[in-house]
Model the fold of this input.
Amino acid sequence: MALKGDGTIILDGKRIKMPEGMIVRVGPRVWRALGNDSKKDVVYMVLGAVPPKGFPLGGRTLLGDGIPNRNKVPRWKKA
Done:
């Protein structure tokens, strides 16, 4: 959820504007990134859940927010 300001979320490579107040539910297997394409501040609230058994991370983390891909870091627009 974008609590303050307008942000951007990338879901499986698709860049989506995230205006203040917008809530997005993202499945655990969706590649995602939250960011900011402007010079204005953005405040996000991010909630997660304990991963189910059989999840690739093995359920050994308290907060399972998908599978990070450190080789696929998005480039944010320079304002």
